[in-house]
Amino acid sequence: MQTPSVEESPGARREAAREADAADPLASFRDRFDVPGTYMDGNSLGPLSGEAEDAIRRVVEQWREHAVEGWTEADPDWFHYGERLGAKLAPLVGADEEEVAVCGSTTVNIHTLVATFYDMANGGSAAAADDPGTVLVNDLDFPSDHYAVRAQLRQRGLDPDDHLTVVESRDGRTVEEADVEAALAREDVDVLFMPGVLYRSGQLLDVERLTAAADDHGAYAGFDLAHSVGAVPHDLAGAGVDFAVWCHYKYLNAGPGAVAGLYCNREHFGTTPALAGWWGHDKGTQFDMNHEFTPAESAGAFQIGTVPVLAAAPLDGALDVTREAGIDALREKSLALTDYLVALVDDLPDAFSVGTPREHARRGGHVAVEHPEAYRISQALKDRGVVVDFREPNVVRVAPAPLYTGFEDVLDVAEALRDIHEADAYEAYDVESDGVT
Predict the structure, then answer these.
(1) Cα–Cα distance between 305 and 247 in angstroms, integer?
(2) CATH of the domain at 388
(3) Which of 14, 30, 96, 142 is catalytic?
(4) Which reactions are catalysed by this chain (predicted)?
């Protein structure tokens, strides 16, 4: 997909952006979303599509018509909802249908999967092991990942300070795969747990390389793909990834607090999860109500509680949109949009800079625009109808999600950034954050 040139007069630049939008084969998807203003925050929460809304209505009508019989009589039935949605998701992450399940929240899924694989690495019980190794993370992770891992270490009577190995960033923005490899070689690592895309800078990590390195050193490889699923194609099974977790309310537009997803390599089917619940039981005997847990022979074993059908329904509809567009086409457009945004930021005053890697192979779906007054600029943007978010210490995150964002939208963002900076318009806003960005 051709990226418009920025080496033109303002009028010609806008015309070039409009021409690129007119030639965009995905442009019509925008009409299927309710997009508030110039929306650049889809890496936090995607907007509502007609398909997602229809799916909610469909489940509500099934509830009205069938009540409890909906578990078996709804079309499709609710009993297999998590597995069915997992099968729809599987092509987006490069997995077999049985390797993906829709369940829980991202953090709950981190708890159960990290704990399960850590115990597996230690003969089934890290708490009983003589000398358990460490879980390998990095210092730019989303905080919830560390909270969960530390909690699971404490549950096993282990001091997280001794059993959590943290790879330090060299520049405060990115993590070098070579540093992860060095930590694997230096430390006794049982589980590597890394993000697919760093939430602040938007760096895309090399999942295949890190998985191979973990395997070479006898460690399981797991990933938090919250900021990449729906924006970046993955090949989890092909890379030999052991497990992964993610959410669906960002690039997959499944709604606030939507049910999450997970992947488990079929090599590990039949493993009893560290956090077992009845919805992960073998479906054929689940209602025998045995007190001994029999794990499903699929990723569905990692489900804990009953699938929240009303929270899962919007994902059902939203996935239809993403699958119709095609993940490869979405990635191509995402790269073109972020290329354009990077070029436009480069043309802004020197106070602005790009904190996201420029190479396509190292860039996710959003761009970290850095500025000393990033927080106040983000507030000024919102008052101009440009929805972004702020991340400490100096990042305005701009996510031109390809399903509903065009090149002219990106140009509008850049021009708003220039106007706010040159007019010192951000000075009208408080320096302190209100805590929600």
Answers:
(1) 17
(2) 3.90.1150.10
(3) 142
(4) L-kynurenine + H2O = anthranilate + L-alanine + H(+); 3-hydroxy-L-kynurenine + H2O = 3-hydroxyanthranilate + L-alanine + H(+)
Same domain, 365 and 383: yes
Closest CA to 191 of 160, 159, 223: 223
Q: Which amino acid is at 24?
A: D
Q: What's the whole-model pTM score?
A: 0.96
Query: What percentage of the chain reaches a pLDDT higher than 90?
Result: 96
Active-site entry in 250, 333, 363, 376: 250
From the candidates 223, 249, 340, 404, which is the catalytic residue?
249
Torsion of CA 354, 93, 145, 202, to 10 degrees: 0
| 162 is a catalytic site residue | no
Q: Are residues 95 and 170 in the same domain?
A: yes
Structural domain range at position 345? 10-34+326-422
Q: Are 350 and 225 contained in the same domain?
A: no
Q: Are 131 and 256 in contact (CB under 8 A)?
A: no
- Distances, alpha carbon 366 to alpha carbons 199, 258, 303, 396, 402, in Å: 9, 21, 30, 10, 11
- Please name the residues in contact with 19: beta carbons below 8 A apart, sequence gap of 6 or more: 4
Identify which of 410, 411, 399, 412 has the alpha carbon closest to the alpha carbon of residue 44: 399
Q: Are 159 and 153 in contact (CB under 8 A)?
A: yes
The DSSP element (H or E) to which 34 belongs, if any, is strand 33-34
End-to-end CA distance of the chain: 32
d(CA 313, CA 291) in angstroms, rounded, equals: 30
Give the integer Cα–Cα distance in Å for 288 and 115: 27
Indicate which residue of 41, 224, 339, 409 is catalytic. Answer: 224
What is the arithmetic mean of pLDDT over 119-138? 95
Q: Of 321, 236, 49, which is closest to residue 329 (Cα–Cα)?
A: 321
Q: If we measure between CA atoms, which residue out of 133, 105, 100 comes closest to residue 118?
A: 133
CA 429 to chain centre: 31
| pLDDT band at 194; cut points 50, 70, 90 | very high
Does 249 qualify as catalytic in the annotation? yes
Q: Please confirm, yes or no, whether 224 is among the known catalytic residues.
A: yes
Note the pLDDT tens digit of each residue in 379-389: 999 999 999 99
| Marked catalytic residue, from 118, 397, 404, 409 | 397
pLDDT in tens, 317-346: 999 999 999 999 999 999 999 999 999 999
